[in-house]
Structures are given as structure tokens and as C-alpha cells.
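Researcher: Please predict.
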Amino acid sequence: MTSAEITATVLPVGVSFFLALGIAWTHRRAFRGTAYTQDYAHTLILIATVTAVLVNTIRTDVGIGLAMFAAFSVIRFPRNAGQSSDLAFMFFATAVAMLAGTGSPGTAAIVAAAGCCLALWLHQSDAFAPHKSGHVLTLSLASDADFESMLVPTFGEYVEESRLLSQRLSPDGGSVELRYGLGLKSGIHIAGFIEALHHTCGNRRLKLEPVGQEFDVER
């Protein structure tokens, strides 16, 4: 191989690798929640690098490209992602790598910079956040209790919207487990709400989980 051919092969892969580092860093900064994994960041970088190699190879040899297409058609990729944004970043890294692999490193750099800036802006501005904090409340009451009447005073003080998601009777029939989707009022203290629930439920087991989304409450 001539020096020009080596440069034409190494440059797209190198550009894709360094741009993928920036995309992985952006994903870490913009990630919400506690399920972030280092493995996913490494996966982004490796996928971008491998994609650049494949696209660059296909660009120079159509026969190899067809063979690669046949090989990849039988590979089963994971269909589940931790969050929707994980899938978006996967496509983002792949698109940038394809641009770099086809010999457009400048365009790839511009797209990567624009995409990273957009992701960081959406994260910092908390764009399109729900108007109310969504929670799932799971609690246990005696099976013969009138739970609707019992919870009305507490919900009236702390809850803006509520919806009964499910109710399940325990195997021994002595208690019933209830799950509610709640939209809490603004400015309320979670600790006070939980204390009021314990008082209402007689210190039975309960769990309040934030979900980061509104519930479609029927009116």
C-alpha cells in the first residue's frame, strides 16, 4: 500500500474514534438517572470505530461490502436499550462514523459537534420536562378497609392527580396491595407526604417511586 492509501484508510478511522470519544462524553454528561454504565460508553466508541472501518472498506471494494452485508444480516443485535436516549446516541455515533468512513471527516466533525451541543442544551435546559412530578405509590392496607375513603384526605392535601393502576389481594386474603399513579402538588414536602401516608395506613409497608413522567389521568 502506498502512503496515500494508508492515510486514506487510517484518517477516517482515527477521526471516527476521536469523535466517538466526544459523543461518549456527551452521553455521560447528558444521562439522567442512575443506570449509566461504562460498558455502554465503550460500546459507543467501538461501534463508531468499527463502522468507520467497514464503511471505508466497502467504499474501496464492493465485493467485500456485499460479503459484509451478508454476514451482518445473520447477526442478532440487542433490541432493548436502557433509555430511549441510549438508542439515539447509538444511531448518532453510527451516523458520524459513516460520514467519516466515506471520506468526509470535516462533515463528520460538524455533525458530531452540532449533535453534542444539542444534547447538552436539551439536558441543561431540562427541555420538555413534565409539568408535575410523577410518582408510583405502592401501599398495603387491610383487605376489608375502605381504602378510597381512607386516602381521600391525604391525597386531597398532597396530590394534584391520582389514578389507581392496580390492586392485588394477598394470598392469605388479609391485605390488599394498591398501586397508584400520582401527580404531586408543587411545593409539597415528600417526607411530610410519606408521614401522612404512614399515619393513614397504620404504619404498613409503602413505597413511593419517581417516574419522571405524567400520568394520563381520565377526568
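Model: Residues 3-124 form one domain.
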